[in-house]
Specification:
homotetramer, 205 residues, alpha+beta, 8-stranded mixed β-sheet, 5 helices, 21% strand, globular
Amino acid sequence: MLDVAVPAEVAADLAAIGRFVAARGWVPATAGNFSRRIDAASVAVTRSGIDKGNIRPQDLIAVPLAGELPAGVSAETPLHVARYRRDAGVGAVLHVHTVAATVLSRADAAQGFVELDGFEMHKSLSGVTTHESTLRLPVFANDQDTARLAARIESALPAEPPVPGYLLAGHGLYAWGATMTDAQRHLEGLEFLLQCSLEERRLHR
Amino acid sequence: MLDVAVPAEVAADLAAIGRFVAARGWVPATAGNFSRRIDAASVAVTRSGIDKGNIRPQDLIAVPLAGELPAGVSAETPLHVARYRRDAGVGAVLHVHTVAATVLSRADAAQGFVELDGFEMHKSLSGVTTHESTLRLPVFANDQDTARLAARIESALPAEPPVPGYLLAGHGLYAWGATMTDAQRHLEGLEFLLQCSLEERRLHR
Amino acid sequence: MLDVAVPAEVAADLAAIGRFVAARGWVPATAGNFSRRIDAASVAVTRSGIDKGNIRPQDLIAVPLAGELPAGVSAETPLHVARYRRDAGVGAVLHVHTVAATVLSRADAAQGFVELDGFEMHKSLSGVTTHESTLRLPVFANDQDTARLAARIESALPAEPPVPGYLLAGHGLYAWGATMTDAQRHLEGLEFLLQCSLEERRLHR
Amino acid sequence: MLDVAVPAEVAADLAAIGRFVAARGWVPATAGNFSRRIDAASVAVTRSGIDKGNIRPQDLIAVPLAGELPAGVSAETPLHVARYRRDAGVGAVLHVHTVAATVLSRADAAQGFVELDGFEMHKSLSGVTTHESTLRLPVFANDQDTARLAARIESALPAEPPVPGYLLAGHGLYAWGATMTDAQRHLEGLEFLLQCSLEERRLHR
C-alpha cells in the first residue's frame, strides 16, 4: 500500500464540511462519511465511527485509488473510491443520513429514482441552468457488501451523470462535485429538493 | 457605469442579515440574495455564489439604479433594482429559499396568490394594524429571464402593494421594507405565516 | 405614574429568557413579550419592537400594577398586568408566537380549549403530579383592544387556573409561573404538548 | 447508605451528554435524566429539575446499586438503577422526551412495540450488522410508581435485549450502552429511526 499523507488543506476542507453537516444533524449516531481527492492517485477518507463535528487529521486516512483499501476506513469507502476512479473530475464525495433522504429513498425504491420537476433549486447542480427541467435522482437498493454495491452503482450510472448524487434505499444520500464547494452545494441543493418533495407528497397525498 | 463604493454601514447591515438568514437555513446551496439602498441613485447587492453567512465588503457590488447592471452581480439583481426604481420608499430587499415558500408557491401558482386570513402576525407587516384582515401574497410564475420577470412583476404590483413581498413559483420568497429592520421583520412575518398555512393545509386536507 | 427602576436581577432574568426564546425561533418578527414581577406594586415589561435575543435594561419599562400604563410598553401589556393583579402568586408572564400554538389555537377556537390527555409532560406544570390527567388549555378569541381582551380572559379564568397558560386564537401562547423558572418550564412544557398534539392530529386525521 | 463521590471523569461525561441533548431540544421543561456507571457498586445520576445544558458536579448524586436510593435524585432513578443491576455490561443510561418518541409511543402502546424494518441506521445499535433486519423497540405503559414500573420492565425485557432501549407510552425514550459513547449513539440512532417512522406513517397513512 502507498503511504500517502493527508495534506493540511485537504484535512481543513474535510473538517469544515464535517462541522457544517454535523451542525445540521445530517450525520446522527456517527453515520455518514466524507472524502476529498488529494491527487490523481489518492483520496482522503474519514475513518469509521469518528465525531463528524470535530474531524482531526488523525481521523482521516489517505487511500490509494489503485490497489487494496487500508484498514480502519469507513465500510463505505468503496462507494467513494469508485466515484473517483470512474471520473477524474470528481474532487469530493459526501454521504449523509437525513430523514427526507431516508424516507423518500424507501418510498421510491421500486421506481428507482426520485423525480424532481420545475424547482429553481435545480440550478444549484453544476450544469443545470434552468428550473424548466426534470431531474431524476437515482435510488439504489442497499447492500452491506459495499464493493459489490459500488460495482452495481457504477455500472448503472452514465459516464456523466446528469444529477451529481444518488440515494441508497433506507440508507441516505451521496453527492459529489469537482471541488468540496461544489459537492457541498450539491448536497445542500439535493437535500432541500428532497425536503420540498416530501412536503408536497404530504400535502397532495 | 457609475463607480459607487458600498458604505461601511450598508455593508454591515447586509452582513448582519446574511448571518441571521444563513443561521435559519433559508439560503441553502448559496441560494438567495440581499440588497440595501445606498442613496437615491444606487443600491448595494450581494454577488453571486457567496457564503451568505459571512458576507464581506468585497462580496457586495454597488449598482446604479439608472443604466446597465455591472458584471458579477446575482442573476436576480433586476428583481431587486426594479423594486427600488418603482418605489423610492424601498430601503432593502431580501430573497430567500425556504421549504414552506417553495411548496406553497407551487401549490397556489395557478391561483396567483397565497391567502392568509386572521393571523395576529399580519401586524408584522407595516401598515397592517389588525388580525381582522385577509392578505394575499402574490405568486408569479418563475422565469430565467429576470429582466423580463421584473417587468412582469412590476406591471402586476400596485404602486403601494398591501403586502411587502411576493413568491416566485417553485423558487422562493421576496420581501422588502423601508429599512433593513422593516424588511427583516416582513421576511420573518411572511415566512411564519407560510409555515402556519402549510401546517393548516396538512391538518385540514 | 410611579417612577420605578427595573432592578438588575429582574433585567437579567428577562434578558436570559429572551435569549432562550429567541434561539428557538418562538418570537419571529419582533413578536412576543415578557414580564417579571418587581414587587407587590410593580412589574417589568418588555418594550414594543425590541430584539428579544438581546434585551438590554433600556428595553424594559417598570409598570405600576395600579393606575395608568406608561407609554412605549408592548400593546399586550394589559394582558400581563391583569395576571399579576389577579394573582399575587404570579411572578412572571411569557408570551410567544409558535407555529404549533398558532395552528392549534385556530383549530380549536370554536371549542374554546385544546385538550391534552395522558402525557408525562403534564407534570411540567406546577401542581400536576401524574400523567393520568386531562388538561384543557383555554383558547380565547383574539382582540386588538387588549384591555377589553384582558377583562374577558380574567372573567373566564378561575381564581386558580389548573393550567398556567392560555392561547389567543391565531395569535400565540401565554404562560406564567410563580417564578421565571416556573414560567419558563410551563412555556416549554405547553409548547411540547402542543407539538405532540399537532403531530397526533396529522397522524390520526 | 454508601457515601460515594462522583469521579471527575464521570461528571464530565454526563455534562457533555447534557449539552448535546439540551442543544437538540430533547429535554424540554427540565424533563429527562441521565446516569453513568461509576463502578460495579454505584452509578452517578442527575438530580431532579436541573438545567440539563449545564450539568455541574453538584447536580449529580452517587447512587449505590444495593440498598435505598438517596434523597434528591430524579423520580425515575429506579428505572436507571434497574438496568445497571440487571446487566453488569450497562455503562450509561439516557432518558429524553422527544416529539417523535412521545407520539409513536402512544400510537403503538396497545401493540407494545414500534417496529422498524430495513433501515441502514439499525447498524447504529451495537450487535446489529445489517439493515436486513426487523427491530422491535418495546413500549411500556407509563406509571408514576417508578419502582413498580422498573420491576415490570425488567421482567419483560430479556437478559440481552436485542434493542438497547424502550419507550414509555406518552412519556419518552430510554436508551443505554456499554459506554456513554455507545449510549449516545443508540439514543441518536433510535431517535432518527423514530423520526423516519413518523414521517413514513404520515406519508403512507
